[in-house]
Amino acid sequence: MTQLKQNWANNLLTFSRRLNQHKFYQIIITSLMAVFPIAVVGAFVALIDKTIFIPTGFFEQLYHVSKWLPFYLPIGNFWASLAILLNNLVVSWLTFLVAANAAKSKQQNAWLAGIISSTLLWLSNQSLFTEPIKNGMLQLTLNFNGLTIRGILAAIVLGFFVSWFLGRYAHHQLLAITGLTLVAAAMAAGYHAFIPNSLAETLVAWFAQLTANWDKNILLLLLLVLISNLLLIVGVPGSLNLADGNNDAIFSVQNLNYALENHHLANVPYPVNLHAIYDTYAFVGGSGMMLALLIAIVWRSHNRRTQRTAAISFLPTFFNLNSPILIGTPVLFNPLLAIPFVVTPLVACLVAWLFVSLHLMPAAVYPVPLTTPGILKGFLATGGNWVALLVSGLNLALATLIYLPFVTLNDKYNLVSKAGDWR
Amino acid sequence: MNKKKLWYGLLVLLFTVLIGWSGYQWQKKSIDLQQMQFRSPMDPIFLVPGSSASQNRFDSLVTLLNKSSSKRSLLKVTVQTDNQLKFSGHLKPGDKHPLIVVGFQNNDDGYVNIKRQAKWFSIAYRELAKTYHFNHFSAMGHSNGGLILTFFLEQYLPKNNTIDRLMTIASPFNLEKETTKKTAMLKDLIAHKSALPKKMRIYSIAGTENYEDDGIVPFVSVDSGKYIFQKQVASYTEIIVTGANADHSSLPENQQIVNILRQYILQEDISKSVRQQNEQTLPTP
Questions:
Q1: Which positions, given as ranges, span the membrane (chain B) (predicted)?
Q2: CA distance B5 to chain A (A)
Q3: Nearest C-alpha of chain B: how many angstroms from A371?
Q4: Are the Cβ atoms of B23 and A62 closer than 8 angstroms?
Q5: Chain A CB contacts of B22 below 8 Å
Q6: Which of A51, A60, A62, A264 best tests the B interface by mutation, with the highest count of B CBs <10 A?
Q7: Which of A91, A131, A257, B48 is the S-S candidate for B145 at Cβ 3.0 to 4.6 Å?
Q8: 3-state SS, residue A143
């Protein structure tokens, strides 16, 4: 058994080493690491915005902040705008760094590639072309409204493409830049978004439609969760992660109506659905049970940098905003953490499903605020059921145990030591 | 180092417990609110007869009602003096607005007995609400039936349950006294009026055979309802019916009253001519 485990670990390490020999992979990891600071700032601002200044925020719901905080609306607008701008900067920085690093590795003009790349990303923003120009000024309304950062993969692809394109037409750079700019602008005006971004999201939407009726079956539900989280590892938030804990709205409403009509939670029509199982029990600290990773790191990791990343990311992750830890550890594009990232939500779903199926706990039916700490979701969504709280705790403990060996592995082979430090 | 981690861990745990606890308080209130705002798909219409009348009191009225519209199912409940319920008739599955007559084994008149009947009504109500899953309803009470319903609404209406529309027919809010002096019962009803659901609509109908009464209940007594309902509920409308069949016990079969019942309590899609006739009767809609 230990032999087998050793083999597995070795295979995984060999794979990581091989991957890390590729230039493009190093560029991705280095760039991701470098945007960590802005991701943290963005996450903290988003945390304030999403817990206090939106109607479904956790603290707004619990303490009715809007009722007693003076200037609630203008302050709320400020935080909302800041959150949107900062979190878009994350993607903008990322594409800049990918393009610049790629160009640098080929001894080309790194600054130029970076600037052009982030310019194109900015240009591809749909709203600039679809919103009317007011008073001669452009109204910048950026598209970021969830817990997950979108467009990571799009930013990376764009960065590589721009550096390649500029290298390919090194002798006609001005012409190449003009061409790129015009194409990007035309595409934005026509398609409303940068192609890889819209393509990925179109596919995700199509997939969500295809699988709309899958989720009452636990096996298909697990498959959906698996696919969604596999996508997230390569920077595409799958359909489940885009819903921000509001999957299966229709089933949820029917369950809620039943509960309100009958004053109890036994025999609700859809005890097993994505919201009642995945959103409630497998989203502790956001996708991939990130709070468990965080605990595992703080508990067992010996790497100072990883520890600091986890400590800094704690508060946003506690409220399910996991972009800093995804980017900072990094979890994205990291084969060493990919396995627990997709396995832990599956285990959590299975445990919750088991408890619901055996009627040991009621289904999660009552709506909870968007930013409810993952560990409390089950407890609150069942109207204060202790077994539900126990299951959430059990899931977190199991996930932490699953993450532990991988955290040790990640320590042993630290991608980042090869990729540079952010401090 | 490890000690520091432990302290941080404890702090996080404490924080979690704290917001978990206040989250629990919030959720309890929130579920309550949702339950209050939730309206069940089913809302029956309760018919409560007056004193000395049995659960069969409204049979001819129901026949009249079912003649012109979609057939409503009819359930009759009699509350025994030992709080047991006796059922006859049945509810058709899928009937969202059935008629339920609640009668009492002890159907004697008198202030004390009316209060007892209100209590009995609440037993029947709770049992029916639990069986058929409704949390709102409408009601019609004839004579003392209107008083029973009013007492029920003031003192026994279960939490998160509400009445939408109430019609009282010749209900003597000041008993059978031909006086403006308030009886103990009226004072009791006025004292608890703040417990009445604020959103309910009330139609109080008085019959007149002559200038004073319908043969039994004086007009001033019916009119006393204003001391209970005015400025308490969403709307309170008094309707005076005269002419044929305007004596106390014929009132439930009076065609005008049946029409008013159909339009305002059952909210049926009635013919235009009947609607116009109703609107002439009503001073203000």
A1: 6-24
A2: 8
A3: 12
A4: yes
A5: 62-63
A6: A62
A7: B48
A8: coil
- CA angle B275/B276/B282 to nearest 5° reads 90
Chain B residues lying within 8 Å of A318, measured CB to CB: 12
Question: Could A366 and B23 be called an inter-chain contact, meaning their C-beta atoms sit closer than 8 Å?
Answer: no
Query: Residue A202: pLDDT above 80?
Result: no
DSSP code, position A187: H
Using CB atoms, pick whichever of A62, A257, A375 lies closest to residue B26: A62
Among B19, B27, B38, beta carbon nearest to A383: B27
Chain B contact for A57, CB < 8 A? no
Cβ within 8 Å, pair A383-B38:
no
What is the spatial distance between Cα A72 and Cα B112, in angstroms, rounded to a whole number?
A: 55
CA distance to partner chain A, nearest, from residue B189 (Å): 31
Which H helix or E strand runs over A3? helix A2-21
- ipTM comes to 0.81
Domains assigned to chain B: 45-52+61-281 (3.40.50.1820)
pLDDT at A128: 57
- Please give the DSSP secondary-structure letter assigned to residue A139: -
DSSP string, chain B: -HHHHHHHHHHHHHHHHHHHHHHHHHHHHHHHHHHHH---S---EEEE--TT--TTTTHHHHHHHHHHSSPPPEEEEEE-TTS-EEEEE-PPTT-SS-EEEEEESS---SHHHHHHHHHHHHHHHHHHHHHHT-SEEEEEEETHHHHHHHHHHHHTPPTT-EEEEEEEES--TTTT-SSSSPPHHHHHHHHTGGGS-TT-EEEEEEEESSSSBSSSSBHHHHHTHHHHHTTTSSEEEEEEEESTT-STTTGGG-HHHHHHIIIIIS-----HHHHHHHHHH-S--
Q: Report d(CA B15, CA A353) in Å as an integer.
A: 28
Among B248, B244, B266, which residue's Cα sits nearest to residue B256?
B244
Q: Which residues of A touch B135 (CB under 8 A)?
A: 261
Q: State how far the Cα of A135 lies from the Cα of A141, in Å rounded to an integer.
A: 16
Residue A39's pLDDT band, with cuts at 50, 70 and 90, is very high
Residue B237 sits at φ, ψ, to 5 deg, of -120, 130
Sheet of B85-89, strand order: B85-89, B74-79, B99-104, B45-48, B136-142, B162-169, B201-208, B235-242
Q: How far apart are CA A351 and CA A343, in angstroms?
A: 12
How far is C-alpha A380 from the geometric centre of its chain's CA atoms? 24
> Which three-class secondary structure state does DSSP give residue A134?
strand
Is A262–B19 a contact, with Cβ atoms under 8 angstroms apart?
no
- Would you state the structure tokens that stand for residue A352, as one six-digit string? 């919750």
Query: Can you read off the two tokens belonging to residue B37?
Result: 């705002």
Compute the distance between CA of residue A235 and CA of residue A229 in angstroms, rounded to an integer: 10
Contact status of A229 with chain B (Cβ, < 8 Å): no
Which residues does residue B139 pair with via DSSP β-bridges, in sequence order?
B46, B166
Helices A290-300 & A335-357 angle (0-180, nearest 10): 120
Residue of chain B with shortest Cα separation from A259:
B35
- Tell me how close the Cα of A61 comes to any Cα of chain B, in angstroms: 8
Which among A260, A262, A384 has the least Cβ separation from residue B27? A384
Sorted by where each begins, the domain ranges of chain A are: 21-193, 211-423
Contact A257, A355 (CB under 8 A): no
Of A116, A95, A92, A125, nearest in space to A191 by CA: A125
DSSP state of A383: T
Which tokens is B65 given?
């009602």
